[in-house]
Amino acid sequence: MCGIVGYTGRKQAAPILLDSLSRLEYRGYDSAGLAVRNGTALAEVVKATGKLHHLADKTDQGRALAGCCGIGHTRWATHGDPSLVNAHPHVSGNCSGSGSGAVESDVVGVHNGIIENYTELKEKLLRRGYTFYSETDTEVAVKLVDYYYKKYKIGPVDAITRTMVRIRGSYALALMFKDFPDEIFAARKDSPLIIGTDEEESFLASDVPAILKYTRQVYYIDNHQVARVSPGKVVFYDLNGDEVPMPLTEITWDAEAAEKGGYEHFMLKEIHEEPAAVRDTLNSMVKDGKIDLSQTGLTEDVIRSIEQIDIAACGSAWHVGMAAQYVIEDLAEIPVRVELASEFRYRKLPLSRNTLVIVISQSGETADSLAALRVAKERGAVTLAIVNVIGSTIAREADHVLYTLAGPEIAVATTKAYSAQLIAADVLAVHLAAVRGTVSPEREAGLLEELAAIPDKISRILEEKDRLQWFSSKMANTHDIFFIGRGLDYAISLEGSLKMKEISYIHSEAYAAGELKHGTISLIENNTLVIGVLTQKELYEKTVSNMMECKSRGAFLAGITTNGNFSVEDSVNFTVYIPKTDEHFMASLAIVPLQLLAYYTSVNRGLDVDKPRNLAKSVTVE
Ligand code: M6R
Fold it and tell me: Ligand 1 centre and the CA of 570: distance in Å?
């Protein structure tokens, strides 16, 4: 999704903006641009299509753009193709061609989100004599601000609030006005935006890693607010134009956590950070051998009153929900329904005060997950968010929040955040069970002991990564992969398959092993790779039988199973053994070889591991 950055202070803005944009590359983009003000001179706008280094080359790494106040953008095309003319920043003035150079314009802006009624607004502006050079909704927003600014001769804040009440959709906007050379004006509804400050400078960004190197003092601008950002100072306004106080938050993440730290890719680094992410998350929830979820405000009374749990999430976070349902149902004996957030938001599910809706999201900004949360609240359910990014919208809007402590995750393909979510969901399941009396105190203690040992077991799996690297080199040219399993192993297969396809571009599917012969088995041909996940004792033989059915039709088989428990070597071509743990928690271990396999396959195919095509880290549009 689009990334926004801004800087105003004493230093040259362009190099800082380029650096911050480079830290948002993981969000996904297809063009980029900068606008920089040098005192009262006109804003200089430069844009480039493709990767950020084209923009850096065009501006001599930012040195060619003088000025201490500026905004920058990486665009993930929604309205209009990924061309130079559609790239941001957009300007209120008439301009031809790409809209680059010193632009005679009262307002210059960048935007993340979608303005749904832009056609209607564009027609209004056309009737008022405005012309348009791009196909974007952003140009419409910038020109609408300009229109109110001039028509009512009001200040930037009022012009922006008037615009906000007219536009529908989602937006994070950063705007510069010709008459206010050192200031940036920002507005937000449903798209992420943070504002960082230091003594003499201020920063804007779509996400924390973009500015972590410069400051840890951050404001989270609320929905329907405008911020006036000057060097070292930020003032917030509501839609009436009245000042509103906003709290400053201290970010505790390490700046190094958002660097590659010697690894070739963020993804590999983040896989290696899984033991720490899991341990930190566990330690935040289990103190002195006892589960302590007081940070969430989820009381024992609420837990006892739950009759139904609905989990809503997207992508890998949904896979965490799929895994969690087996654990919660089995341990706490509460019925669990897992829904894709994009479906949940439009379903008419009966919810009540006795339904707990759990929304899982790394970023805390995923548009569909946020919408699902809002629907759940409207319908009267109790909501709990499992979120990684502190202060994100989902975290702020949920009734209760459980933070995972994975630190910043940069690679588009989630790994350590998934593992942290998984462990958080497992501890939650144990807690629900203990409070409702479906597990005894002794069993609870035993389960917690198993959970505490997981980080070291993940480290042991990582020590054996060379074998997976070798295997991935053998299978890098495969066209189709099927990941199969039953029960929790099916949930693990879903994540293994997504990991593989999103970064290797190899077609892969996850199937509940017993379902294959209802249609999909017709796709099995000579050498189709079938990876069986075999961690559940009761289901092991059944899945192996399904794998053998594939083998009879030419499939090449790989199996993931536990040390010493089962022996599959006679049946399959390649086996990965993982350490044993309580079967409820096997996902935390079985996923690691699958993540490594996907990683090495992507590397072997020479692909952009951290920034796969067409994908965005944080999907903030519907
Ligand atoms: O930030 P979220 O956890 O809400 O993101 C949800 C999905 O977009 C995300 O898990 C996505 O599926 C990842 N690319 C998977 O690796």
Answer: 37
pLDDT of residue 445: 97
Task: Give distance in angstroms: CA of 268 to centre of ligand 1.
Answer: 17
For atom 7 of ligand 1, the residue with the nearest CA is 315
**Protein residue with its CA nearest to atom 14 in ligand 1:** 413
In sequence order, what are the residues at sequence separation of 6 or more whose Cβ sits closer than 8 angstroms to the Cβ of residue 349? 310, 337, 339, 379
Instruction: Identify the structural domains of the chain with CATH numbers, from first to last.
Output: 3-252 (3.60.20.10), 266-462 (3.40.50.10490), 465-604 (3.40.50.10490)
Structure tokens at 43: 């804003």
At what angle are helices 416-436 and 441-463 packed, to 10 degrees? 170
pLDDT reported for residue 50: 87
What number does the ligand 1 atom closest to the CA of 417 have? 3
Which ligand 1 atom sits nearest the alpha carbon of residue 615? Answer: 14
Distance 316 CA to ligand 1 centre (A): 5
- How far is residue 579's CA from residue 259's CA, in Å, rounded to a whole number? 30
Determine the residue of 392, 594, 619, 620 to mutate for testing ligand 1's pocket, defined as the one with the most ligand atoms within 8 A of the Cβ atom: 619
How many other C-beta atoms can be found within 10 angstroms of the C-beta atom of residue 233? Answer: 13
Percent of the chain with pLDDT over 90: 77
pLDDT less than 50: residues of the chain: none
pLDDT at position 74: 93
Nearest CA to 429 out of 497, 362, 488 is that of 488
Whole-number Å distance, alpha carbon 554 to ligand 1 midpoint, is 34
Q: How many helices (H) and strands (E) does the chain have?
A: 18, 28
Q: Which of 498, 481, 500 is nearest to 604 (CA)?
A: 500
Q: What percent of the chain has pLDDT over 70?
A: 99
How many whole angstroms separate alpha carbon 196 and alpha carbon 211?
7
> Is the torsion defined by CA of 206, 389, 413, 456 positive or negative?
positive
Residue with tokens 């497992």: 426
Q: Which residues line ligand 1 (CB under 6 A)?
A: 314-317, 361-363, 366, 369, 412-414, 498, 502, 618-619
What pLDDT does 98 receive?
61
Active site residue 617: yes
